[in-house]
Amino acid sequence: MADLLRLLLRVAEKAANVARVCRQEAPLFQLLVQEKTGEDKNKKFVQDFKTLADVVIQEMIRHDVGAQFPEMDGFIHGEESNKFENGLGESVTVTVCRTEEETATLLASVLDGDRTAASLLARAIHRDPATIEANTDGLAVPLSPSELGIWIDPIDATSQYIEGREEVLEEGHLSPSGLHCALVLIGVYLRSTGEPVMGVINQPFNHKDPAGRSWRGKHFWGVSCGSVNVCSVSRPEGGPDGRLSAVLSSSEKPVVKEALTSLCGPDKLIYASGAGYKILCVIQGLADVYVLSEGSTFKWDSCAPHALLRALGGGVVDLKNTLRSTCGAQDHETELTYHQPYTECKGADRWANHGGLVAYRDCSQLRSIVAALKGKL
């Protein structure tokens, strides 16, 4: 497991490099945007975009993990289709090739012959990143790769990534939108039960170097399996006034906002973009809980941060099932799992978190949220 974690940290940093390269080439970036249609479309947004950066990152992670752990091949899942349409209307299957030159040639066919842009992307894909600092020594978990599957969200909060607004992150505060909401998420789950056991989060646009004006990233990771619970983030302390704080989507239902305003107070409701970023805010202690009543997130959004929360003693539950449960908020059966699709649905909806969710660090906070929303939804 330590070898797998080190690999995922490395490929997540490679993914962050790809995301940054794509943002730095503004004319190229405009060419890369392609609207999703049909069953792959996220119904929450009027326009939900797929970028070539998404596809390249996903296929790079799949390639690198499959090369080192071939027994995981077939269980490395991503958000995106790797089919991309170029300006001539030709469908190109994006994969990572054996050499940088071969990958550049393939990408040039997507980019309408733009060899310069294709070479920049290929170089980021094939270049090993700087050493990632992570204290994984002695991490012993009795699992083999053949027992595990992976969910990849190559760029969560794609709309924020595309818009590209540069907000300054204040220490101890979350920001509602901007490039920092865009995350690379890699989650590992048990094939047998669907439990999330490892997560890696990379924030490619964490801060900007004031001298060189280049972006620097930050990574987070966690492992939760049996008695092993290790996280790169320390468990945050509660707020000084003891009141609960909740992060929500601005489009959350009025009844949920009203119930949580009564529980927390209006100054303790915070709004932010990106499902992954909102759960990361809970992990970091910038909010106590993340509540979502809609089924607008997917397994690739929640798997990685869910593992980190479990390592900190928290979790992510299905909101609808938790409200229906007679066993209380701590019922293990209400935790999200990641191994089974909703067979009655099609396309991306097969992997949606249909019942909404609550991400939490402390069970007492979860119970407070459930009590506030009981009978309201």
Query: Please, how many helices?
Result: 11
Give the neighbour order of strands across the main sheet.
3-6-7-8-9-10
Give the DSSP E fraction (strand runs of 2 or more residues).
Answer: 15-25%
| Mean of pLDDT | 87
Helix content: 25-40%
Any idea what the shape is? globular
Contiguous low-pLDDT stretches (5 residues minimum) are 43-49
Q: What about the largest sheet?
A: 6 strands, mixed
**H/E series:** HHEEHEEEHHEHEEEEEHEHEHEHEH
Number-wise, the strands total: 15
Q: Structural class from helices and strands?
A: alpha+beta
The span between the termini is 40 Å
Please give a structural write-up.
With 377 residues, the chain is of the alpha+beta class. The chain is 34% helix and 21% strand. The protein has eleven helices and 15 strands. The radius of gyration is 20 Å and the shape is globular. The termini are far apart.
Concise overview:
This protein is α+β, with helices and mostly antiparallel strands. The chain contains eleven helices and 15 strands. Helix content is 34%, strand content 21%.
Secondary-structure blueprint:
Blueprint: H1 2-24, H2 26-32, E1 33-35, E2 49-51, H3 52-68, E3 76-78, E4 83-85, E5 91-93, H4 100-110, H5 115-126, E6 148-156, H6 158-163, E7 183-190, E8 196-208, E9 215-225, E10 228-231, E11 246-248, H7 254-264, E12 269-271, H8 275-284, E13 289-292, H9 299-311, E14 315-318, H10 319-324, E15 357-360, H11 363-373
Parallel strand pairs: 3-6, 11-12, 11-13
Antiparallel strand pairs: 1-2, 4-5, 6-7, 7-8, 8-9, 9-10, 13-15, 14-15
